[in-house]
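Predict the assembly for these two chains.
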Amino acid sequence: MGQEPRIGVYICHCGINIAYKVDVEAVRDYASTLPYVVVARDYKFMCSNVGQEMIINDIRNYQLNRVVVASCSPRMHEKTFRKACEKGGLNPYFFQMASIREQVSWVHEDEVVATEKAKELIRAAVFRVIHHEPLEKRYVDINPNVLVIGGGIAGMQAALEIADAGKLVYLVEREPSIGGHMAKFDKTFPTLDCAACIMTPKMVSVGQHENIKLLTYAEVESVEGFIGNFKVRVRKKARFVDENKCTGCGECAKVCPVSLPNEFEYGMTNRKAIYRPFPQAVPNVFTITKEGWSPCRSACPANLNAHGYVKLAHEGKFEDAFALIMESVVLPATLGRACPAFCERECTRGEVGGSIHIRLIKRFIADWYYENVGTKPPFRVDELKNEKVAVVGAGPAGLSCAFYLAKEGYKVVIFEKEAEPGGMVKYAIPEYRVPKDVLAKDIEVIRNMGVEIKTNTPIGPDGLTIDELFAQGYKAIFLAIGAWKDRRLNVPGEDLDGIYTAIDFLRRVNSGERVKVGNKVAVIGGGNSAIDAARVAKRLGADVTVYYRRTRHEMPAFPEEVEAAIKEGIKFEFLTTPIGFEGNGKVEKMELIRMQLGEPDSSGRRRPVPIEGSNFKVDVDSVILAIGQVPDSEVFGKFGIKLNRDGTVYINPRTLETSRKGVFAGGDAVTGPSTIVEAIALGRKAAYYISEYLKKGSLDDVNFPSSLPTVDKRRVLERRKVEVIPRVKIKELPVEERISNFEEVELPLTEEEVKKDSGRCLDCAICCECKQCVKACEAKAIDHQQKDEIIEIEVGSIIVATGFKTFDPTPLRRYGYKKYPEVYTSIEFERLNNASGPTEGKIVMKNGKVPESVAIIHCVGSRDEKYHPYCSRVCCMYSMKYAHLIKEKTGAEVYEFYIDIRSPGKMYEEFYNRVQEEGVHFIRGKVAEVTDVAERPEEEGKLIVVAEDTLTGRILRVPVDMVILSVALEPADGAEELARILGIAQDKDGWFIELHPKLAPVSTASDGIFLAGCCQGPKDIPDTVAQASAAAAEALSLIMRGKVEIESATSYIDPEICVGCMQCKSVCPYSAIDYDPSLGVCVVNEVLCKGCGLCAATCPNKAITLRHFKNEQIFSELEGILL
Amino acid sequence: MNEAKEKFEPKLVGFLCYWCSYTAADLAGISRLKYPPNIRIIRVMCSSRVDPVFIIKALLDGADGVLVAGCKPGDCHYQKGNYYARRKVALTKKILESLGLEPGRVMLSWIPASEAPKFAEVVKEFTERVRELGPNPIKRSSFS
């Protein structure tokens, strides 16, 4: 300031607290000698009215413009004295305090030394205050909305108080319903009120209150901002049910096929995947637990919902199962026989007994449908469309694409070159694998969907061209020409009679031709076509040998097929390949060379290398070459369709469109020889894109519906104990019965076997999306496509009411929890008492008998050095409550094993007396163990509680029917993460820390964030409710103030000195510094600045000042100390 | 035993952050813990405010030792200021070495708000340590 400093110094005696060690008069005298000090006084209590008046008067009378008070810590009275300065007309920042109590008189012994130190600290304060500058107070508005985290009794109470006051409350609850733990209780101590009776009215109020926005099944993800201005991101998890439409009727749960342990009942009963936690839930709607896709569904190339149809099969709902299958694939009866079943390889059951027979169950369902319903498709077309689509090729890919387009209402025509539809399935896969009448039914379904199949109608050089198809009015074309051209060996003699290519051979046999293969047949190759050819040739009466150039390990054929071939007597020769054929017009001999495995080739398999001089010859009547196929696509290249080097059709991998607009491709024509299911998958995908193309014209923003993440198997196996149940063995026709004919080799499962096997399903993803619930829901409230919703809310204050969880006593093995069936935790026993619990409120053992004696063990996990040192406060009372209820309901003998009885509340001691008078036995002693090993006849069949009775000094063995463990309370799951999100602290036991243990039990060190209920420490319901009301009151008090003061001591950057190096910007924790490119300097955003000073210390040019902590001020303080 | 050294009372300056270490010092006072009187405390809002210049000036102007105390890692009231304080002190100690000053004269300590005994311990330990080192060799004889 322009004026000369005029300082007033005041030394406080603080009663005797300072005066007993510090010579306050000497210090006062010293102070008056310091520069610019105009007046120096001492007084007994500077913080009192008299003391403050002294300052105010001196400011006026002496025209003081600086004030120093030497007394207690600034934490105590800096505010007080700043206010006094203000009252005296002085800016409150012209004030400095020296702490000579906490930092001198209370901590040092020697009076002389203490006085000297006091003088130095005052000198430092005086030197500093000379350089002080006035600062303005800053305020921000407080957003009147409140966020309450947790919907138990604490959260609900707080929410209701604030909502009744007219303010808006967001109540976020992680579970599907509010109610917390109190919803699980039966009666509450000591009045034995029914918990539900007193709480459900509150729950309903919360649900209906116009000022409470209830967000259930939701969690707080992030909190930004500061008091009065919090920006909160809440994730509302998808429950797959529309809350506004669901009426809570429960019809869905009746038909849901998936059961799992009920978390609300602590696993004592099961619930369905679609569920309501308890009947009085608020909101009274259902929720679906869906964790993703089961591994079977993810493994399937068509993402067929295997989990879903397996569950439906278990329920006997075969027609619905068939429909579910056809939502994703066609040719179900074929797939049920010939699919390699990628699903089964990933089935989690595979690790505990063998995978579910997903494929054979599909076969059963398809066969059942054809027999009992027929070949009508399980879908109706909603609206017919005008556009026509042409499909080239009636193999699996073409049939699939056509079916799904017809399902959408398009007019589809398939142009098939051969005499019959079915592609490879019809012409290459042998009859003993897929009987052709079965395939015919599969194809009937597709025809009945409205697909026209024109056989004997090739597209290509002998028939229509692509241009002609477009000219005929087809708006899009799907090429599914497969891979039918066999590769050639290119060795001498390959064109002799009797040398067939595999596809050609199989096609002829499947067309009914009885190919004469003679006696000795050689099959060259190691893939499925080779095995098919070999097994067919065997059935034509030949002696067959398969020659493969690598080893069995590298054979691409399905292992099951190879096994079957070996069983049928087909021989295999490995590491050999033909180099030439000899014969007179017809093949008679084949020359081969032996191979060895060298370096891996592009497929990763080791390349076979011929061994010089190892040639040998064998006699043959026929040779079948099965060395691979490629698409016969040359002609399509002429239609403007780009081909890859190997002849496959080039496509856009996302949309399946070829290089020619409006022409799509899929199946083996694109992938090379593959599996039926992969071709079907591509066909359906293409149908989707073709449909979008016809609707929108462009495919730029179109994406195939995405998949859900695959559930981790480990998670599934950890959910509950899984028994190893082996799968039913696949039955086959015995070799002798099948070797000379083309009867189907694999036998089906029976209906009983299907139901039994599907019962082994582990429900990996929980909800299987079988859609039975959708069918049953009259309100049309179920939406399986629902996504998590992120809701952003702005609030001024936050009340944390996240409650607790109970201690899991499994590690205390001596108590036998989870070992003996009749050992319960207190909360489990609570559920037994509750009328809507697993036993409808009756106290019965798992064997149905009523217990005649019950032991209740106190302090399990509490007051225990190894687990929790604290007392959980409510266990003595609830233990006695159980004793009373047990007596009342069963008359059994009850033994309470306690250390101390804690009954401090209103009517608690009286309740203790009452329970004692009811004849409950109280034994003072910690229980050593609970055992079932009897030492005397009366202990047989019982659980024996072994404890020391410390009052008599004897060891007791008390035989009982049931044991209840009174377990400790612990912070709820996720408390640590929430603490981090909110920026509040946890104590060493994990409970949230209050601002002051006595005087501020509901606020935290973070302004605007309050605590209510057990999240701050274990307590009973009366205390919880009281604390919740207190937190609400504090929040309301904040809101009433309307404004809150924020830090005035912010940073300032001098633009004259700043060079714009941005060091400060890079370190600011609050991103409160911006770079101004027009000036080339950095600027502090005062609203965000919190006044830490990091920027000031970082600036290499010292361009930054932290107000009220300027370098000047600190140097002066130093000078005062070190002079 | 050197008589002079026995009588040597080091002058120590402590820069304490308001939220944690200063609170711990207050709590030490409330708890009536006793510690050597050699230390003089200067309050800053955050240990990150401590510019190396403060430390050097303090040593040049007569301090025998400088203590910088802040919040425990992870608990800084301003998120991460204490990490910067740590780096600055480490760097300052290196610079001081080249000036011929023992690095033991500068100490950095994390003192949580509730740990008053730790505060007293740190002060005791630091005082003894600097006492052993003796008077600051680079302090200017007169203050200008």
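The longest strand of chain B covers residues 12-17. The longest helix of chain B spans residues 81-98.
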